[in-house]
């Protein structure tokens, strides 16, 4: 079963990577870019065929390893 | 207007980062993880209020800077 974990920075947390992308886009001539926020998407292929179990496992993985709970939020979606 | 650009590796392209995450999950006791694929999500805050223009601009940004067209696919979604 495939599960998608979307990891984004919490609101208010500075995003230096996003700022760097914004400046680079400006340098390439793309004006009108008011903000850029960068996140991660992790697609997990899990052995279980139980959707609830897969969601629970993925959330535990996100809490323990995939995301930094201090500055990041995550959402889990079965796909 | 906010636009989301999802960037994923093309099928068949090796994902060393994903492999490293898979091994780390195994070391943490998460068994049953058959595969891990990692991608990026970039949220753009564009000045335009025209959805079609925003999508076109974001696609151009993805082609020119945000994604590596050789090994990555991208999708653009107005949010």
Describe the structure.
- The structure is a homodimer of 79-residue chains.
- Chain A has two helices and three strands.
- With 79 residues, the first copy, chain A, is an alpha+beta fold.
- The first copy, chain A, has one domain: Mth169, Chain: A (2-Layer Sandwich).
- The first copy, chain A, has a three-stranded antiparallel β-sheet.
- The longest helix of chain A is centred in the C-terminal third of the chain and has 16 residues.
- The N and C termini of chain A lie close together (8 Å).
- The relative contact order of chain A is 0.35.
- At the A-B interface, helix 1, strand 2 and helix 2 of A face helix 1, strand 2 and helix 2 of B.
- Strand 2 of chain A pairs antiparallel with strand 2 of chain B.
Quick synopsis:
Two copies of one chain form a homodimer. Chain A is built from two helices and three strands. By secondary structure, the first copy, chain A, is α+β, with helices and mostly antiparallel strands.
Beta-strand residue fraction of chain A:
35-45%
Count, helices of chain A? 2
For this entry, what is the oligomeric state of its chains? homodimer
Task: Count structural domains of chain A.
Answer: 1
What is the makeup of the main sheet of chain A? 3 strands, antiparallel
Under the CATH scheme, the architecture of chain A is 2-Layer Sandwich
**Spatial order of strands in the largest sheet of chain A:** 2-1-3
Which structural category do the helix and sheet elements of chain A fall into? alpha+beta
Radius of gyration of chain A in whole Å, from Cα? 16 Å
CATH superfamily of chain A: Phosphoribosylformylglycinamidine synthase subunit PurS
Per DSSP E runs of 2 or more residues, the count of β-strands of chain A stands at 3
Keywords (chains A, B): ATP-binding, Cytoplasm, Ligase, Nucleotide-binding, Purine biosynthesis
Family (chains A, B): Belongs to the PurS family.
GO cellular component, one term (chains A, B): cytoplasm
Subunit structure (chains A, B): Part of the FGAM synthase complex composed of 1 PurL, 1 PurQ and 2 PurS subunits.
């Amino acid at each position: 079963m495939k599960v998608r974990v979307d990891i984004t920075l919490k609101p208010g947390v500075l995003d230096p990577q996003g700022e760097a992308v914004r400046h680079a886009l400006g340098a390439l001539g793309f004006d009108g870019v008011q903000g850029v926020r960068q996140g991660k998407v992790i697609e997990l292929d899990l052995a279980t065929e139980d959707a609830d179990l897969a969601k629970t496992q993925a959330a535990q993985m996100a809490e323990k390893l995939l995301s930094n709970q201090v500055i990041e939020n995550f959402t889990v979606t079965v796909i």
